């Protein structure tokens, strides 16, 4: 089995020399175990902050994959079955079955299995529960999402449209703005090239925002909070603009906006809805099958390119979900 390890904790943006490819032989299977081969891997922003909190230097990088059972000494996991696993950046691994999630039984033949790591997987569920449960969008509401062309953001905007809202999205390139228009966003802007975030936000929705799905934090959040409508709802999903900071930065003080606009702002980690994942996944798949939810994947070929894909995603090279294919 080949694996990518994190040689040292990242300082600032991750660099090629922070990763090392290692190879080791796996032992023969014991009763109750299965051998799996990864076919698709996911690289996600959480790996940047969580690597600091959860990994030691030299550990295999964390992460999930879609993997196929190659050999089985556990009748519950037959050879040829596909599972979503959380085994890290590794080509092959042995599991006792704990934590292996089968693809839903109604998985359509024509859908790529990699969607279980994207639109019909963790990022899709993040968009689904974060938006619907915390922002509580009503028909006619204006929903703002940043990193809108990414795995989570692109689903947030489309669910907002399904619910009859106006969707406003920001992203970091003009290609991404084109993509957002294609998937139905009403208003889009490039946060890197606008002369003022406040002006861009005002222009996109002169009356302000009912819901704000926050993926970025920092200066964007400072500007967006000021444009909220009274009783606006903010779901804090991510803060990617701050993940590489080693010293916490301070921005304008936001309490007056939260106070006088009577905003509700709540952070979340998607696993809080673990019990409801089947419900969310069923609905996401249904929308995908009906063509109401479009997905886009940014595919990198070759396990050897995993660090490059991860570093590229953090820099914004991806449109839609960043996936690595064997
Ligand atoms: P994306 O597919 O959106 O990829 C990350 C994107 O972030 C890049 O493509 C880039 O797009 C944007 N970005 C990078 N740096 C900056 C910056 N400094 N300012 C603004 N945008 C930046 O990733 P995901 O959809 O997987 O994740 C989006 C967010 O959701 C992240 O913050 C992540 O941590 C969070 N998340 C939270 C979960 C939870 O349970 N709370 C679960 C899953 C994700 P661009 O070109 O537009 O800059």
Task: Kindly describe this structure.
The chain is globular. The strands form three sheets. Strands 3, 4, 5, 6, 7, 14 and 15 form a seven-stranded mixed β-sheet that branches. It is 27% helix and 25% strand. The chain contains nine helices and 15 strands. It is α/β, with parallel strands linked by helices and 326 residues long. It has helices spanning 47-54, 122-135, 151-162, 174-182, 197-204, 218-225, 255-260, 277-290, 306-315, and strands at 2-6, 19-23, 34-42, 65-72, 82-85, 92-95, 101-102, 142-145, 166-171, 187-190, 209-214, 228-236, 264-267, 297-301, 321-325. The mean pLDDT is 97. The protein has two domains: 2-118 and 296-325, Alpha-Beta Complex (Quinone Oxidoreductase, Chain A, domain 1), CATH 3.90.180; 122-271, Rossmann fold, CATH 3.40.50.720. The structure holds NADPH dihydro-nicotinamide-adenine-dinucleotide phosphate. NADPH dihydro-nicotinamide-adenine-dinucleotide phosphate (NDP) binds next to helix 2, helix 3 and helix 9. NADPH dihydro-nicotinamide-adenine-dinucleotide phosphate binds next to helix 2, helix 3 and helix 9. Residues 12-324 form the Enoyl reductase (ER) domain. Pfam families: ADH_N_2, ADH_zinc_N. GO terms for molecular function: 15-oxoprostaglandin 13-reductase [NAD(P)+] activity; 2-alkenal reductase [NAD(P)H] activity; DNA binding.
